[in-house]
Amino acid sequence: MDSEELAVRIAEANPDIVGINAMTPTIPEALQVAAISKKHAPQATTVLEGGHLTLAPAEVIADAIESGNSTDDIPGLYFRSNGALIIKEKVKLGRKHVNVFGFFMIGFPGEEDESDVQQTFELTKSLDLDRWTWSIYSPLSRSTLYEELIAEGKIETYRLDHHQVHFTEAYEGVCDFAPDRLKAPYREINEYFYKKEGCRRK
Prior knowledge:
The chain is mainly alpha-helical. It has helices at about 5-15, 25-40, 50-55, 55-65, 85-95, 115-125, 145-150, 180-200, and strands spanning about 15-20, 45-50, 100-105, 130-135. The chain has a two-stranded parallel sheet. Strands 3-4 form a two-stranded parallel sheet. α1 packs across α2 (about 25-40). It is flat and about 55 Å long.
């Protein structure tokens, strides 16, 4: 489907909500779809979700919003730094109407030690989620973080080609502590949620 046909279909549907899923390789196309949606269905709320939003939310928002406002000014946008209480309130509200699925990732650049990972872990344990999944951050090609890490000499291109990347391994140079130290809390987190899922099914 080309852009013209998509525009016609969106206008004919006259939607209240337009949902767009985007992984890193498809983020340019997802932003184009969002722009078409805003132009041809201005009354609709356009929702962009997916793995790339977790990896680089501020980057995507900066690309998608031309006004230049700070992400702090956007209603309904929440990061862990906004505080656990706000996130808990939104999860509680959401579960009144839909199942809530949590996608969590650890090992980002800027995480300095296990305490940063533990903070995320403790928050998610306190959330009443219906489903969840955990991954270790792997820098994907075409992402801003990938290019920055290469430019800083922290990672090597050949070691992180797309076909080699998966989200259960920790890579040297991505975050500020060694991969072996990241794998231990990752195993702990997955064991905890595996047991929790088992208890729910009994």
